[in-house]
């Protein structure tokens, strides 16, 4: 069957289906006549299993290990249950701090933050995990950079389409047309390169380091 049918049967988008194939979680056959993917019912069943485990928070790496036999399904579930238990305890501790703040302080201005930070620090030494601000900031910066780049590229693509349409209606000299296409293409490539650099800086924490000075 084709990928559209698989998408309808599983509720998994074509993009994610291809991603799982890239991760070698599914291996559909290829039609020898045209090279197109041919998905089987077994692939659909595998995708449903993958979908279930991903919804439970199991990583693609662990799913691959289950498939290749380097990790048993029971071991994976056991480890994940322990991880979920720790996360539940972390949430309980986070909630306790929030309730304590609400009980002892009614206004932000009177909040003795240092005392609570010291308490949190001691709890973290005991294994409790609180919000990782840097991870949250990294996600926001990555999303913002990608969105800004996508909007810019979209605008340049629209401009290129408009130029080509106008040229069809009223042809311009070939040299000028190619020069405009080259300029717009260069701008798009520049945005993509700048985006890659920005994402690299965000991931490596270079922006955080620079903000200290």
Question: Can you put this structure into words, describing what you see?
Answer:
With 213 residues, this protein is mostly helical. It has helices at residues 3-10, 14-22, 41-55, 60-68, 73-104, 113-125, 133-169, 174-204, 206-210, and strands at residues 29-30, 37-38. The protein folds into 3 domains: 3-68, Multidrug-efflux Transporter Regulator, Chain: A, Domain 2, CATH 1.10.1660.10; 73-125, no CATH class; 133-210. It contains 9 helices and 2 strands. Helix 7 (133-169) packs antiparallel against helix 8. The radius of gyration is 26 Å and the shape is flat. The N and C termini lie far apart (58 Å).
Structural descriptors:
213 residues, mainly alpha, Multidrug-efflux Transporter Regulator, Chain: A, Domain 2, 3 domains, two-stranded antiparallel ribbon, 2 strands, 75% helix, flat, disordered C terminus
């Amino acid at each position: 069957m084709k990928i559209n049918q698989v998408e309808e049967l599983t509720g998994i988008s074509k993009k994610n289906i291809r991603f799982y194939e890239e991760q070698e979680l599914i291996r559909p056959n290829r039609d020898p006549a045209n090279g197109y993917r041919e998905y089987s019912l077994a692939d659909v069943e595998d995708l449903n299993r993958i979908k279930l485990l991903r919804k439970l928070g199991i990583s693609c790496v662990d799913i691959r290990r289950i498939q290749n036999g380097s990790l048993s399904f029971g071991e994976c579930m056991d480890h994940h249950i322990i991880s979920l238990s720790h996360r539940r305890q972390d949430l309980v501790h986070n909630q306790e701090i929030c309730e304590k703040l609400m009980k002892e302080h009614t206004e932000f201005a009177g909040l003795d933050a240092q005392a609570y930070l010291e308490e949190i620090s001691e709890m973290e030494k005991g294994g409790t995990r609180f919000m990782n601000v840097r991870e949250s900031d990294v996600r926001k910066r990555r999303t913002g950079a990608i969105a800004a780049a996508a909007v810019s590229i979209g605008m340049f693509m629209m401009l290129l389409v408009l130029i080509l349409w106008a040229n069809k209606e009223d042809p311009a000299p070939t040299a000028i047309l190619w020069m405009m296409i080259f300029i717009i293409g260069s701008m798009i490539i520049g945005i993509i390169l700048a985006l890659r650099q920005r994402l690299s800086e965000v991931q490596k924490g270079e922006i955080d380091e620079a903000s200290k000075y």
